[in-house]
Each structure stands twice: as structure tokens, then as C-alpha cells.
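User: Predict the structure for this protein chain, please.
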Amino acid sequence: MQVPLYQAKAEFFRMLGHPVRIRVLELLQAGPMPVRDLLAEIDVEPSNLSQQLAVLRRSGIVVSTREGATVSYALAGGDVADLLRAARRILTEMLAGRTELLAELRQTDPCSEPHPEPHPHAHPVTVPGRPFPK
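Assistant: Here is the predicted structure, written as C-alpha cells:
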């Protein structure tokens, strides 16, 4: 039985759903990188990076090559870089919308305006049963 396309897409996005994997993909946009360079750029334990690289490799989104003792990784195709650029554009638009909304809320919220200081000779308000303010 064939997996529905929407389910395959969900599994694909789940595979991308880890910060270390996203960071690896971002770094690989510049070209192939040895694992030692990836480790220098990403603050994770070597075993964690190895696990995340294995997930990306099994999914076919990255490929690895070995030259002697050095293992390097590269994006399997340019579509991944396109996807990351699209994600950046979408996030930029989403965050810009939030910033604009926040600015609008601040402009229309009377509570966000500074309150004037009381007049120095104004009488303090007392509440029955509470001591007089000093």
C-alpha cells in the first residue's frame, strides 16, 4: 500500500525538525564540509552530530564522501538550499508581521503611554480601612 503524499511530506518535514539538522543543512549550502569543520561550527557532542548526520544521510538529503580519515558531507541537490531560502523568507515575513502588529498594539494601547506624574500638591487618595500613604 502506497503512503499518501501528505503523509510522505509530513515525514519529510519531521526529518528536518531538529535544530542540529537544520544548522548542518545551512552550513552545507556553502559547499561540502568535513565533519571536523561541522563540529567546530555547531556546539554539540560528536556523537550527537554523528546521529543527526546519519538521519540526514539515510533520508538522502545529504551525501558523504571519505578521503583517507576525513569524512565530508554535502547537500544531495540544490533543492535543499532552495527550501532553506524559502523557509528564511517565510520566517522573515512572519516575524515582520509580528513586529508590525506589536508596534500597532503599542500605538493603540492607552496603557502603554507613560502616565503623568501627580501634581506635587495633590492630596493622596485614601481607602477606608487602609493606612494613610506617607
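The two ends are 79 Å apart (CA to CA).
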